[in-house]
Amino acid sequence: MSLFNLARLLGRSAAIGCFSVAAKLPLVCGLVPSAKLRRLIGIATLPDLKYGGIYSQSAYSPWKGDAAFRQVLAAIRSHTLVDEYRCYELWRLCGQIGALNPGDILEVGVWRGGTGCLLARRAQDANLGGTVFLCDTFTGVAKAGGQDSAYVGGEHADTSAAMVLDLTRRMGLSNVEVLEGIFPDATAHRIADRHFRFCHIDVDVYESASQTFEWVWPRVVPGGIVVFDDYGFYSCGGVTRLVDGMIGRPDRLMVYNVNGHALVIKRD
Ligand SMILES: C[S@@+](CC[C@H](N)C(=O)[O-])C[C@H]1O[C@@H](n2cnc3c(N)ncnc32)[C@H](O)[C@@H]1O
After folding, report:
1. Quick one: CA torsion of 112, 80, 167, 111, rounded to 10 degrees?
2. Is the C-beta atom of 182 inside 6 A of ligand 1?
3. Cα–ligand 1 centroid distance for 267 (angstroms)
4. pTM exceeds 0.90
């Protein structure tokens, strides 16, 4: 782990510790001037979600020795909010879907196109065929609500479809289609007859994640994978609740990867 990542990890753990202490002293919370900070302190009292620092004993870091991945990561770095651990998991998973029934790739929650273009590059290099559909409002997070811990809607609006298309051009991608508007409401009808081998849901909030999953799941081929970003993040409790609510259903296997991803794999 780099010093930067270590500092971030310790900083995050310390912040969660401070939030937990502050949450036990309601008077302190009342004195905090920032609404966002008050929300973060409130998360520490949620009865269904427990948070703390995670220090894995694993040290294997294959993303460091994968030259093709590193090249793509360098190209998308300034266009993604996703760290290299999660990017590498997307890269590796996408490289393993070639044996599944034919299908496309869907990403909902694109921002500036980083993870979407990473998936598209992997699919193009592996000759997977199909299209990578990248769906975003490009006006920020939609459908934040009561299940969500910190998001209120409108976050991550500092992007545009043009920024994403510019990245696809610079990366020489010919397999991407950008769909602009709230998903599924405004754009899903354009791909309603498609099937998907892989879907990346990175929308930060419960309702958007839930509606995206309900729409895509019947269209996922057997063995296909849905990756939920945001699972386990302190500020994304809605997504954690949503995925936890799916555990035990007979048509799916859920894997928590401790890195901020939950994988949901469709059983044959
Ligand atoms: C954290 S960002 C995505 C990050 C991106 N995957 C990356 O590589 O950095 C979340 C995005 O989800 C989008 N979003 C949230 N709800 C949505 C919805 N219902 N339909 C379309 N886009 C949505 C927001 O506009 C925002 O750009």
Report:
1. -20
2. yes
3. 27
4. yes
